[in-house]
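Figure S4 source data
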Amino acid sequence: TATYKNLVLKDVVEPDGVKAGKTYDAGTANCESTALALVVEYLLDMGLDADEIETTLETYIETDKFADLVDTVCCIIEDCDNITNYCCLVECDIPEFTCETTSLNINIPTPACDVTCTTISKPITVKFVGKDDVVINDFSDTRLDWTIPSGISFTEISGEVCLTGAVGTYNIKVTYVDPLPDLCGSISKTIPVTFTNCSCPPPTSLNINIPTPACDATCTTISKPITVKFVGKDDVVINNFSDSRLDWTIPSGISFDKSNGKVCLTGAVGTYNITATYTDDCGIISKTIPVAFSECECGPCGEDGENDCFTVKSWTSYDSGNDKTTFWFKICDKSGSGCSGLSHWVYGTSTQAEFCIDIDANIGYDGSTGYYGIKWENNLPGAGECKIFTVVLEGCRVGGTYKAILKYGTTIAVFNVCGPTCD
């Protein structure tokens, strides 16, 4: 994609091309040569060599897109002393070149064991931004370039890939280069193709799971079983982390106990990569699994509740400097029809065992509501009023849920509100 925001004056491309050793000198007057040099730079960035660029230019300079580019360059040169002056660009009719390759979709079926050939599936599809998909059904299409490793052969006419060497995995690389007139770039994809021997197939995947530990947790345990998959052979299922076919690479900062699969933090919090390698007589396969240990953040909590008579809002704030958490409660009397005034309210839980607040406050069992907690009887909101109440606790305590129990008349209303963690 050509961009014109950072244009610079380019050397002129001489009529006989862009061969090595040539000297090019444009000046500012020759709009066409400056535009042509911009195109040359773009083609060089795409990886084209001198001969390919020369062939491309012969066609491109006859297109409307090149004419639009020349007009834009002339406009900028005419209006600006310095072609990099972006203010001048807004006065010029800059053409939009927004197409770009985004993906190359190709499928090569895995051959069954002892099968020595497979055929690439049709079609090959290239996707873009700013342009419709390109669908290719011809493997010899000039827009495609194939890189085939030794040990296998590839027939472009049929798309057949055949084994010529030892069984194993071979990586086929295909590159698509978008041609004129769009020049939307190039994209590559590498596809592994595995040929296997039925009597001794190599492993194709190693499935292992290490659960991410909760924040502030210093250990996690690798899940059982570990499963190794093959082509043409039953899975190998491993439940012993000390199995001789497994080799573990454990970085410093964590420990690994093979007897139980426990992984524990011994260094700083962070992400550590554990590599497990499975080896048997027919092959080897490895997998690296990141394990992230983290500290808990004292995040906010927000709980809202409402009925016909009252609204209850709660939230938290954490002062890291003093290591204190404040729980905030805003209670509003809506003065709804048939509502009595608030006689008192309790912040707490249904049993004393669940209550984990230790502060100098009126804490106990409220027989009128059946809840245990902190009781407020004074400075309550009147009709149409709102009042705020707070509880301050040591440390980062966000994460639990308590109850706000409001008693008015003969009615008891219970709302979920922010509560502390108790560990």
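Figure S5 source data
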Amino acid sequence: MNAHIRLIAAIALFLLAFACHEATAAARPSYSTGYAVLEVGGVPLAYVSSFEHASRLQSERSGYEGATNFAHDSQAPEEFSVVLSQSLDNRLFGILGRQISRGGERLNGRLLSLDWEGNVRRVFEFSDAIVNEVRFSTLDATSRERFTLGLKLSAGQTRWSKGGGKANYRDIKAGDRRNVWLAANFRLDIAGLDSRAVMRIESFSLVRKGNPGLGNGPQYRDYEDGETGFEMPKLTLGLSDYFGTEVFDWYEELHADTADAEAAERSGTLTLLAADQTTPLFGIALTHLGVYRIAHAKEPRADESGKISAGFYVEGLSFVTGKP
């Protein structure tokens, strides 16, 4: 009997201690980072995994012992970058597509930093911005990492302000896991090439030509008028040798002495897929594709086929939105 009483008392003390711990934890304020959301034109477009804002400095020598003074360059643009980890609205890809094809659309928006309860902690506002670079992270069929889109932008004006109020973006995030971007969930379709051959696509970037900015000085004027376009990327693909015969045939078709290179170029679509590996989240249409380099990768193991590394050039690129 005494043993039973001691056991019951021990359990009661444990439950009391646990309840006190939970009450203390609930009363303690949360200092977790929370999450961030990118808005453009009042529309929440994507979740942001990282953000950086920097102003350009100009230096000049002062008369006092040759010291160097630094000051903000008022004629230079305000530059910032974001890394997006999940889309909230397919209008994101329409905006990026127009930036690439037209180059002159001005973006007004803000970045909200929130805690997990939805309280807005800080707000970064920007106006008259344009995208200078779009960076696609590596896609790999064997990866468990997230896929991300990195954007570098220049803005006419930026402003930090204190937060306030609440936003319900966490509810959107919790309710739509289908839109999570994963590096393994992709498909590259190119005419005449088995899509199963493509195991990996290395990170690549679209970079705007000319002056990277929207400043007030004369050196930024052409850029401001939207007269500059984007440099098309070169793609590096990891292919399975088992399906790779078509790549070698295509290379010969492009580079033979009697080849009509333009006629031998092909079109394709790179599609990021949802968790079901079927539903498209968004796609990138590629035109005038060609193979310019082929190399064998490291020696394969006995239980795997060989791997080929192939370099592709691209002359045209546009975004294709998936299912809304």
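The two ends are 67 Å apart (CA to CA). Confidence is low (pLDDT under 50) at residues 14-30, 213-226.
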